[in-house]
Amino acid sequence: MVTPAPSLPKDFSQLSLTEAAELLAARKLPPVDQWHPERSGDSFMEIRADGSWYHEGGRINRPAMVKLFSTILRREADGSHVLVTPAERLSIAVEDTPFRAVEMKSEGEGAARQLVFRLDTDDLVMAGPDHLLTFGSDPDSPDPRLHVRGAIGNRLEARIDRALYYEIVEMALADQSDPPAIWSNGARFPLVDR
After folding, report:
1. What is the pLDDT of residue 190?
2. What are phi and psi of 175, to 5 degrees?
3. CA dihedral defined by 18, 68, 161, 57, rounded to 10 degrees?
4. Closest Cα to residue 149, out of 33, 66, 19, 40?
């Protein structure tokens, strides 16, 4: 049985990075990449660009349901998204990215910095070698994203909210690296992808 992500034990802004790391380590997701059911269909669901979830045109207003569905979300090799269980695989439309990074904590500076993001599903993700930050190749039109899970190159991503993006830019500029980049968990992420 799949259980939804637990609510954070306290306000995200009050969590230390040590507490966030403990929550990350304790999080167990279903092995959706190992499930290949024969039965498939359409879930009649969509995730809109603002992160809201809909079923048959009606908004899903229960956060626990969204959290539950988000745990069985997978991106296929063709770029499509599905909700998958051992019994069935159902398509789901995703307008932009399936998640939104809505809060961020930063500790340390320069190469010692660690960034932890809270997603709109209350999941926590620490940017680093396994959770890449990308910003797009056009500095005039940034496309800030965070790899949430799945294989690198065919991943589920979170759109980083604009206010968080500006915080990242300020931190990167304060570090005075050339070209500007942000570090997290030992990985360096240029503000413009090359």
Report:
1. 94
2. -75, -15
3. -170
4. 33
Instruction: Count helices and strands (H / E) in the chain.
Output: 3, 14
44-53 tens-digit pLDDT: 999 999 999 9
Rounded Cα distance, 104 and 157, in Å: 16
Q: How far apart are CA 133 and CA 188, in angstroms?
A: 9
Helix, coil or strand: residue 80: coil
What does the alpha-carbon distance between residue 136 and residue 59 come to, in Å, rounded to a whole number?
Answer: 30
Query: pTM of the prediction?
Result: 0.85
CB atoms within 10 A of CB 26: 8
Dihedral-angle region of residue 108 (phi above 0 means left; psi in -120 to 50 means alpha; beta otherwise): left
pLDDT on residue 140: 86
Q: Mark the ranges of the chain whose per-residue pLDDT is less than 70.
A: 1-27, 152-154, 194
Bridge partners of residue 45, in order along the sequence: 55, 92
Burial of 175 (0-12, 13-18, 19+ CB in 10 A): middle
Asked if 125 contacts 117 with a C-beta cutoff of 8 angstroms, the reply is yes
What is the C-alpha to C-alpha distance for residues 136 and 27, in angstroms, rounded to an integer? Answer: 29
DSSP 178-194: SS-EEEETTEEEESS--
Closest to 24 in 3D by CA, of 134, 143, 114: 114
